[in-house]
């Protein structure tokens, strides 16, 4: 039993998809949940209701994680309202897929700023808090395209590869303070984002997966729960694929 009772998890972009699944999974083990998001308020309200139904505290914060100052402000609010942060999950992410030939500068910058700089901002502003507590868990959601690359996703792949470097560097800085820092690299996961792909593209991707099916957000959430728990206290600096064998 991975009991998180009394702990607080700050999970960016968790109003839907993988982030929401992680929030629900951690809440199911007793963690209170703080969610900075920048999306549909109705989705956020629904996610909050589902999380609170598990008997824990949940607060949603409208926040652009790519903003250094906005991230600082929301971290300060979470620490004040919850009394501290025990688990940070960097999940917020966007895509702007195009071949490099047609990719605009703003397409590249926006994805890097949200996916990579956003994670840096949240780590930066929780860093001293974790150090003072002398314990903590930081988990970043990377991707197998951060390991393998993918045509048409130079910006997304770069951001997810950057998360891996950020994870390993942060793990080396904080390991001596009993703070673990790991990354999860999902493969083809059945989410709203992948549902927008054509059936032809989805079938081609599934054909390359040894398990012949896409993963679910819960597959990612199960690993996030383990990494957030005391059972994973000696695992740090790792990038763990959850991809059905796709990137073997």
Architecture overview:
NADP(+) binds at residues 13-16, 91, 156-160, 189. Strands 3-2-1-4-5-6-7 form a seven-stranded parallel beta sheet, sandwiched between helices. The protein is globular, with a radius of gyration of 17 Å. The protein is of the alpha/beta class and 248 residues long. The protein has a single domain (8-241), classed as NAD(P)-binding Rossmann-like Domain (Rossmann fold). Helix content is 47%, strand content 15%. The longest helix is centred in the middle third of the chain and has 29 residues, at 105-133. Helix 1 (17-27) links the parallel strand 1 and strand 2. The protein is built from nine helices and seven strands; from the N terminus they run E-H-E-H-E-H-E-H-E-H-H-E-H-H-H-E. The mean pLDDT is 95. Helix 3 packs parallel to helix 4.
Structural class: alpha/beta
Mean pLDDT across the residues is 95
Strand content: 5-15%
* Name of the level-1 CATH class: Alpha Beta
CATH architecture: 3-Layer(aba) Sandwich
Task: Please report the distance between the alpha carbons of the first and last residues.
Answer: 30 Å
Number of domains: 1
CATH topology: Rossmann fold
List the uncertain runs.
none
Q: Please tally the helical runs, counting DSSP H or I stretches of 4 or more residues.
A: 9
Order of helices and strands: EHEHEHEHEHHEHHHE
**How are the strands ordered across the major sheet?**
3-2-1-4-5-6-7
> What is the oligomer described by this structure?
single chain
The CATH superfamily turns out to be NAD(P)-binding Rossmann-like Domain
The helicity comes to: 40-55%
- How many individual β-strands? 7
Report the principal-axis shape: globular
User: Biggest β-sheet: count, sense, barrel?
Assistant: 7 strands, parallel
C-alpha Rg (nearest Å): 17 Å
Catalytic activity: a (3R)-hydroxyacyl-[ACP] + NADP(+) = a 3-oxoacyl-[ACP] + NADPH + H(+)
Protein name: 3-oxoacyl-[acyl-carrier-protein] reductase
Family: Belongs to the short-chain dehydrogenases/reductases (SDR) family.
Subunit structure: Homotetramer.
